[in-house]
Structure formats: structure tokens, C-alpha cells
Amino acid sequence: MRGNSLFRPFLLRRSLNFRPFSSSSSSFTIPPIRTPKTDSSRPENPYPDYVRDHPAFADYLSGYPRSFEPPKFGFEAEIEEPPVPPNVVMVNSDEEFEAALNKTEGESQLGIFYFTNKGCVPCRFIGPVMEELARRNPHVTTYKMDTEAKELAGTVEKLGITTVPTVHFFVDGEKKDEVIGSDVARIVLTTRDLMDG
């Protein structure tokens, strides 16, 4: 055990090629940094003239062709939004709202009035749901209204719309129910109940 401890510093010094500083040597010199040698026989531009004059050479050096477009993946080309169903009608003014309300009264059918606006995040979530609901119930008309439209200010104030999305259900010109917020399950169930009743 003692022999191992005596040889350990010697072996460590030998393996690391370590020389301890003595008290007499107070300074040491740092070797100069070697710079790579340049080959003067090598040309500055190794490409021949016919390559440098080619129009695609600049594209090769830049890494991108001049008509560069980001690559499209297969699934991006395949995804297409389905068209808006014909029974989803945009209402753009107070007069159009009154005409739509009179139509639901005359036909004795369910009319869904969907209030939304472009800056509403829950409306972006519920919008495709409303379109799919209209697609599955072609005999029910969904009237879509933008609450930020100035032409609909009277209707929004008259119905007391303060939150979007808001969905009103009218039968025979009379409001039967309403859903405030993006409660998809309640919208679907209310539609089904009013259609069955």
C-alpha cells in the first residue's frame, strides 16, 4: 500500500508529461502561434471561366436559386377547406335581418342567427362547427352576422348582443333559446331539440 502511494506522483507526472516549476525558473516563454501556409500555386478562383459565366453559378454560391420557393409538403396540397354550405346566409344590415326574421316566421321553420366578428378567437373555433351543422341540416338556415358591421348596429343593440359568439334560435319568428359562448355541445343539442319539437 505504501509502495503504491510513493510511485503515484511519479506515474502521474510521467503520464501528463508534467514538469514542476522550480524556484530558480521564474519565467517561461509561450511558443508562437503557427499560421497556415498559403499555397501560391493555387488560383484565387478555382472555377474556370465557362463555369463563372453560367447564370446558375451565382445561385450555386448563394445556396438558393433565383426562383426559390419553399418546398411544399404533400399534406399541404391535399388540405382544402370545404365550401360554405348554401344554407349559411350572410346578413349585412338591419333590413336584411328583419327580412330573415320574417322568413323564419313565414316558413314555420327553425332559423339560427349566429353573431360573430373577425377578431374573436372562440368564433374561429366555432365557425367550422356552425358550417358543419348547417351542412348536416340542409333545411335549416343559418344567418351569420358580424357584430362590428355598422349597418347591423341597431340589431346588435336591439337583441342585446354583448358577447360573441352568440347563437339565437328562432321558430315562427319568436326566439326560443340562445347560447352565449363556444358551447358546441349545447348548440348541437338545442338545434336537435328544436327541430324535433
Characterise this structure:
This is Thioredoxin. Residues 21-48 are annotated as: Disordered. Pfam families: Thioredoxin. InterPro entries: Thioredoxin-like_sf (IPR036249), Thioredoxin_domain (IPR013766), Thioredoxin_H-type-like (IPR050620). This protein is of the alpha/beta class. The chain has a domain at 88-196: Glutaredoxin (3-Layer(aba) Sandwich), CATH 3.40.30. 41% of the residues lie in helices and 15% in strands. It is built from eight helices and five strands. It has helices at residues 2-16, 49-52, 56-62, 74-78, 94-107, 121-136, 153-159, 184-196, and strands at residues 88-91, 110-116, 141-146, 166-171, 174-180. Strands 1-3-2-4-5 form a five-stranded mixed β-sheet, with helices on both faces. The termini are far apart. The model has no long low-confidence stretch (mean pLDDT 77).
CATH class wording of the domain at 88-196: Alpha Beta
CATH topology of the domain at 88-196: Glutaredoxin
Number of helices: 8
Largest sheet: 5 strands, mixed
Task: Tell me the strand order in the biggest sheet.
Answer: 1-3-2-4-5
CATH architecture of the domain at 88-196: 3-Layer(aba) Sandwich
Distance between the termini: 97 Å
Radius of gyration: 39 Å
- Which overall shape is indicated by the principal axes computed on the Cα atoms? elongated
What fraction of the residues are assigned to beta strands by DSSP?
15-25%
DSSP strand tally: 5
